[in-house]
UniProtKB/TrEMBL annotation, chains A, B:
Pathway: Cofactor biosynthesis; molybdopterin biosynthesis. It comes from Mammaliicoccus vitulinus. It catalyses: adenylyl-molybdopterin + molybdate = Mo-molybdopterin + AMP + H(+). Keywords: Magnesium, Metal-binding, Molybdenum, Molybdenum cofactor biosynthesis, Transferase. The lineage of its organism: Bacteria, Bacillati, Bacillota, Bacilli, Bacillales. Its EC number is 2.10.1.1. This is Molybdopterin molybdenumtransferase. CDD domains: MoeA. Belongs to the MoeA family.
Amino acid sequence: MSVEMRTPIPVKEAIESVIQVVKHKEPFTLSVEESLNYILAEDVQATYDIPRFNKSPYDGFAINSQDSQGATGDNRIAFKVVDHIGAGTPSNVKLKNGEAVRIMTGAPIPDGADAVVMFEQTVENEHGFTIRKSFEQGENISFKGEECREQDIVLDKGQQINSGVIAVLATFGYQHVKVFQKPTVAIIATGSELVGPKDPLEPGKIRNSNGPMIEALCRDINIETTTYEIQEDNLQGCIDIVKKAMMQHDIVITTGGVSVGDFDYLPKVYEAIDAEVLFNKVQMRPGSVTTVAYKDNHILFGLSGNPSACYSGFHLFTKPAIQKMMAAQEIYPVIIEAILNEDFKKANPFTRFIRAKISFSNDGVYAAPSGFNKSNAVVAIVKSNGMIILPSGTRGYAEGDKVKVLLTDHQSYERALNL
Amino acid sequence: MSVEMRTPIPVKEAIESVIQVVKHKEPFTLSVEESLNYILAEDVQATYDIPRFNKSPYDGFAINSQDSQGATGDNRIAFKVVDHIGAGTPSNVKLKNGEAVRIMTGAPIPDGADAVVMFEQTVENEHGFTIRKSFEQGENISFKGEECREQDIVLDKGQQINSGVIAVLATFGYQHVKVFQKPTVAIIATGSELVGPKDPLEPGKIRNSNGPMIEALCRDINIETTTYEIQEDNLQGCIDIVKKAMMQHDIVITTGGVSVGDFDYLPKVYEAIDAEVLFNKVQMRPGSVTTVAYKDNHILFGLSGNPSACYSGFHLFTKPAIQKMMAAQEIYPVIIEAILNEDFKKANPFTRFIRAKISFSNDGVYAAPSGFNKSNAVVAIVKSNGMIILPSGTRGYAEGDKVKVLLTDHQSYERALNL
């Protein structure tokens, strides 16, 4: 048996090759209540102006500004209050000279009024109030349509439905919305060493942790998963289960079996099902053997069986693909600069991703490895909310150095990641 | 009628006053599958060492390092392969001199072996392989317990259950876990101007958007909500509904009715139910009249009826309180530095929070207001993933200035926010 030679490609190129083949899913219509986190498949128009009518942004008195001209501290001008309205109740009054309407925040400006005097700017008396300054036309008024006009596009196709979108849809009375379907994900843990949560732990065995971890990673981004039975290292069994999973899901994530070991059957599975392997070696540590294959709009992520490598592979490749399939615009991991909190002396022959705790403080952003840093580490993932990125060809990082860090709970528009 | 005078307190002090009164809820036990995002109410111990046994981190051959001493390019040492194991299958062989076991990643190191030779380091022949360098004891071995030992505390009480925690719990075979209950939230939109999504829009009316927005904000952090009927500005009705909501929920969020207008009944509601008002005026724009009150472990958030102010109030006060009640350690908003992408000329008499789009790029972090910047703006929330913070007493910010920004989808340990 000889060792298969693979050509490692740069991380950035690997990510782009995944993004390039992935297509978004078809749109469908669902109720606004169920739409949170989906991506809009249509532009949404304003069904009326916002504000819907000229309204008062303060509690005070609506006046005609002309009546206020000439008011000074020595020449206070008096107004008679002829009506009293709160939000939701238009006044039936049309102001005459010297008249005012007591008006609350959000209430429509009455006919004949063109300015609002705030309570603090008045001295009240029995029939009304006096003021000591003149007001301009339009002073203290929120004008009809000043935020947007009827028929304006207020939500763009491609926008993720967040709390603000929900507020806008509610504002305009929309009850249904057209969104892109989300991909569904199949999870298959492979490896004869793996047992389930309740199975006895025979010698040489470990419990499957990658499967539950990936379920959780998907749930974090509101993606449904189906977990298949753990697969022993058995070629025909793996082919059958991957085929079955592909028929039922857009994305099939396997863990383990992607290296060049004698029982690493995933490369043979891709061959057997005639999937195009986009790459099977990436210039990164851990997870250099991470493999992505593609067939008929289905994408197969062959993630490492080592938990830290599996975790990194998910964030670098699977999550952006999921985002693209659900038609999101922000599909790439967010990378920011941080100050290293610890020395990291090792050489980095490939780009190194270190599970890290990123802390945000008044002094700046800091990053420290979050625990034991090996491909097979699992506990180190717990305290990580990001990954330190050390470029290939570097070594000897010291506390205080500036480094790039990837935030695992953000996605970005930015394509040009220097990975 | 006279205007009630309120004393505005700094934002930071307001946040701290909320955090101070809030207590976490009681723990309970639930299945690991349901536990994502809850906070651990107990330390969790390793039930075995990780790695569980000495294992091979590579595909190659397990040897006794002593047999390799003296190997060079000119003096290659030969090994005979006597067994072949994959992960999950311990070898029954005990190595004798000059023997090796072909071993795959993750498989247990056989008896008598103390080093692993990677495939790339060998030349294979009919009965085995030769090597050209000597190996040290322990070379290329992942040692039993090198990540953690049995009975080590691997998860700390207070840790949020993320994908890494799920992986650790799965690794150790835990099927149930003790976590803190999450608070439940009641949402009550108040204001005679508000109508529901299907109601006709009479003059002076607008549709309730704050209620659905807050539901979505809570769902984003996996908190269940109950939405009550929209309340007209009616004192007794408001008292009754708030009382009812308090009996059923830990947190009651109202929108509207917190200012000093004639129909702003929330101050009177707090009085009527004998709740302690923590503050009713904050040195911030928008949302300066945001009010928080407290009674018998129930907390009442009187958020503004203006969408942008409501949104800001939720992120500044409600979200940290929810995090604390569910016993999270990371309860505060994350604040980082960004470069302003646009001029912002207005004066900032109070600390100003501007709904903003924060962009992460290779050049750095940029922030730009995400739309029309008024308290009652709603569309501007859509594109915001943060808020620009302009301190009180400042004015005349220009494009290129460094500013603090709050990331609305992160929480932090950091207490000392310079707000």
